[in-house]
Amino acid sequence: MRLIYYHLTLDMKQQLDIPRGQEGAAWHYRAAAKRHPAHRHDELEVNLVIAGEADYLVDGRRYLLDRGSMLWLFPSQDHHLLREGRGFEMWIGVFQPRLVRRWAREPAQRPWRSRNPRGESLRRLQRSAAGRLERLFVDAAEAQRCHAATLANAALAHLMLAAWRAFAEALAPTAPATVHAAVRRAVDLLRGGGLRDDSLPALAAAVGLSPSRLSHLFREQTGITLTTYRNRQRIERFVQLTGSRPHRDMLSNALDAGFGSYAQFHRIFKQVMGRGPRAWAREAQREP
What we know:
44% helix; Arc Repressor Mutant, subunit A; disordered N terminus; Jelly Rolls; 288 residues; five-stranded antiparallel beta sheet; alpha+beta; four-stranded antiparallel beta sheet
């Protein structure tokens, strides 16, 4: 399957590498070692969860995703997967503005034209509706693999319209939990990687809470411990540094990512990625 690559700019806006001639893309996503930082993009996006659980942070709101969840993401919304459970899988569809404009003709589709509409963005589909929609994702992805842009665009338009209809017909909207400002600030600081000291006491001082209060609140509102989240961000920075400066040794990249020693880096890397850093590097080199 063709991977969709992201090019990140300084303001967290990403340019999606969509196949030439297409007005969007669809792909299957599994919980993976390669994680993307918080980002936004000009494309309208829809996610359909088909297995497992995850937590999404969208503009300061935390969403719990599980099987059958459908989440819409709009161009001005920063979004970031906080946690992915084992076995998490979803389909992702992205639709370029010109495709959206062409089909957003009815009053019910007006939110498509907004960069950050009001109202809920997450609903849970019944199994039959989710199954029908999944088949449309498969069709769009298959057209994409065949490099048939005209067919892919028709499939993407069908997918977008059907997904919005399924969303509108879903019975029970799922309300997001509003994340405490200090927790959101802690997420931003850890994600940005600009802290000289990202220890719990330093982070708590930066957001104006006691260490114990921040630790408790972070786990309560994000579903993971602050230490776990910090370690994931360090691993993410290591992966990004390795991609941008592949000729530097692993220890240098690990230290620059925030780890205190190679032993600590190796232990945490294996916990997060499921294999050691050298095995991961060999696999990454073999990827097309």
